[in-house]
Write a structure and sequence with these properties.
Number of domains: 2
CATH architecture of the largest domain: 3-Layer(aba) Sandwich
Largest sheet: 6 strands, mixed
Mean pLDDT: 83
Distance between the termini: 43 Å
Order of helices and strands: HHEHHEHHEHEHEHHHEHH
Strand content: 5-15%
Number of strands: 6
Number of helices: 13
Strand order of the largest sheet: 1-3-2-4-5-6
Shape: globular
CATH superfamily of the largest domain: SGNH hydrolase
Low-confidence stretches: 1-18, 22-40, 375-380
Length: 383
């Protein structure tokens, strides 16, 4: 919101008296964007696949053809998968404020979770990979800028234009009549911007253990609060439900790719036009602060692992709810510069999204077996 206010002041300084008109135009644009924004959860489903007699849902399909089931009831019988996350799970990159606002509210189904474009040069998403094995419904709740929060804050009139944090995304999942069979959570990267939380006089201090430990502990407490809400809803269901908590990004590997991008940019300054803008919006990415950012990510991942272990001890071995911590994305090698976006060298490129989808897909099998989701047909894992 500081950037929006700066824009107002800049326009009024250049052309006195135009501030009110500028506000009016911006409000009109924001209202227009709200009609096609991420307030409506992005969904995709593979209803057409169940027409095959080989499908385990073929009888439900026949009932729908006979008018005994509505399309909504038919869809309800399919496996449902949901994604909670931040900008690393969306088709997003850093640019102008207006450009980022448009992408955060309008760009759906172009990311590693929910891309639906079948063309060979598009992202080969987790949804597409899983749809080759079973019909399903996928729901995307990820929000650019979302972080793990304490919840309960008053968002006011600007709420729809602010990032949807973990608590708001959890609210959206819980508002659904149909509880997802499988919920994937990969959120917390915005919590790694530690510089804003530390006194400037202490940022260069090599001994900040107490700071990191408190940040990691607070992160776990806030994460656990929202995960518990989801688990309690799942425990009320008669069917099995599963959750996969993915560890945060492999930052050490990522920074190797970003260093390569920086060298390329020195040779050709027109490359990665938002490279420096990233430092304005995420100061902890600066080279002098990176090591602590990597360290904090590892500490938070350990907290996530311990949190899931504690949940499983509470649930017991015969629970209808399965929780798993996965390091599939936390250990993924992302040091290839082609895997990061050519605009900001921070978010994943289309190729990077496909690599993330492949890694995440490899972690699904135990949960799918627990849920009893039977593949309708076998395919090689390729297009």
């Amino acid at each position: 919101m500081r950037s929006v206010r700066s824009s107002f002041l800049a326009v009024e300084a250049l052309v006195p008296g135009t501030g009110l008109r500028f506000r009016a135009v911006l409000c009109i644009v924001m209202v227009w964007l709200s009609g096609c924004s991420s307030l409506a959860t992005a969904r995709s489903s593979t209803l057409s696949d169940i027409a095959s007699p080989a499908s385990p849902y073929h009888q439900a399909y026949l009932q729908s053809r006979q008018g005994r089931l509505t399309e909504a009831q038919l869809t309800d019988r399919l496996p449902h998968m949901a994604m909670i996350g931040d900008s690393l799970s969306r088709d997003f990159f850093v640019s102008s404020l207006f450009g980022m606002l448009c992408r955060s509210k309008m760009n759906h189904r172009r990311d590693w979770f929910l891309d639906t474009d079948p063309s060979a040069d598009s992202v080969y998403s987790l949804y597409e990979r899983l749809a080759r094995e079973t019909p399903l419904v996928a729901c995307e709740y990820s929000s650019a800028g979302g972080e793990v929060d304490s919840g309960g804050g008053n968002r006011g009139l600007l709420g729809p234009w602010l990032p949807f944090d973990l608590s708001q995304q959890t609210d959206l999942v819980l508002q659904e009549k149909r509880c997802p069979d499988l919920v994937l959570l990969w959120i917390g990267h915005n919590n790694l911007d530690w510089v804003d939380s530390v006194d400037p006089r202490l940022r260069e201090n090599a001994d900040l253990d107490a700071v990191w430990q408190k940040m990691a502990a607070d992160f776990r407490e806030d994460y656990e609060r929202q995960l518990r809400r989801l688990v309690e809803r799942a425990r009320q269901e008669e069917r099995r439900r599963a959750f996969i908590v993915f560890g945060l990004f492999n930052l050490k590997s990522f920074f190797e790719a970003r260093d390569t991008a920086e060298q390329q940019r020195k040779e050709n300054p027109r490359l990665y036009p938002s490279f420096e803008v990233v430092y304005e919006r995420f100061e902890s990415m600066k080279p002098e602060y990176r090591a602590n950012m990597v360290r904090l990510a590892l500490m938070m991942n350990e907290e996530l692992r311990a949190m899931v272990d504690e949940f499983n001890r509470e649930l017991g071995g015969d629970s209808q709810v399965r929780l798993e911590y996965s390091d599939a994305l936390a250990t993924l090698a992302i040091d290839d510069v082609t895997l990061i976006h050519p605009m900001d060298a921070w978010h994943p490129s289309p190729k990077g999204h496909s690599v993330l989808a492949e890694a995440a897909f490899s972690a699904l099998r135990p949960s799918l077996e627990f849920l009893g989701i039977v593949p309708s047909r076998k395919h090689a894992d390729s297009r």
